[in-house]
Specification:
Elements: H1 2-19, H2 23-26, E1 34-42, E2 54-62, E3 65-68, E4 76-79, E5 82-90, E6 116-130, E7 136-144, E8 149-157, E9 160-164, E10 176-184
Antiparallel strand pairs: 1-2, 1-10, 2-5, 3-4, 5-6, 6-7, 7-8, 8-9, 9-10
């Protein structure tokens, strides 16, 4: 009887080990984990009616990026990798006078907040690539709750994060914009 108990215990352990944990346990936090801030800078893309808009952008990344290619063909992602983007807009270079009107190109008017715009969503990391400048960057896609999907690349040097110019076409850029720095907080 004692031998059966030992055998059952061993078989149970092997079965539990062989099945593995849940998929949420198999991922790890990404290199983007935490908060990154781009300081006050001119951002003419934010308001097409007034190219003299300055902004501070705060990005907060959390969660795990998990890819599953278990069938060898399709790729599925667990949506635990979250991103929150907050843009504060200003009329001046010192970012001390908030703007009255903010017209972000990617946010539906029902979601506009003056002078702050905040959107949340998921992100997925893809493969590393060599950029046109020779740096190794990682492909990333953002899926915001506004229905807007961005495709971009990023590069981290110490505590400084750089992105390329995002596309909406499903194709990733291959050039980084090294003039826009996000500093890890």
């Amino acid at each position: 009887m004692k031998n059966r108990y030992v055998l059952l215990t061993m078989l149970s352990s092997i079965l539990i080990y062989g099945c593995g944990g849940s998929s949420s346990d198999s991922g790890k936090t990404t290199v983007l984990e935490g908060t990154w801030i781009r300081g006050c800078s001119l951002d003419s893309k934010l308001n097409v009616n007034d190219p003299n808009v300055y902004s501070v952008i705060k990005l907060t990344f959390s969660g795990k990026n998990i890819m599953d290619v278990s069938d060898g063909i399709s790729v599925t992602y667990e949506e635990t990798a979250k991103v929150k983007r907050e843009i504060n807009t200003y009329q001046d270079l010192s970012c001390s006078v908030p703007t009255d009107i903010y017209t972000p190109p990617d946010v539906h008017p029902d979601n506009w907040r003056y002078p702050i715009s905040t959107v949340s969503g998921q992100f997925v990391l893809f493969e590393d690539i060599s950029t046109t400048g020779g740096l190794q960057a990682t492909q990333i896609s953002f899926y915001y709750n506004t229905g807007t999907d961005y495709y971009n690349i990023f590069y981290i040097n110490a505590d400084t994060l750089f992105f390329g110019n995002p596309t909406f076409s499903g194709r990733f850029p291959n050039t980084l914009d090294l003039t826009q720095e996000f500093i890890k907080q």
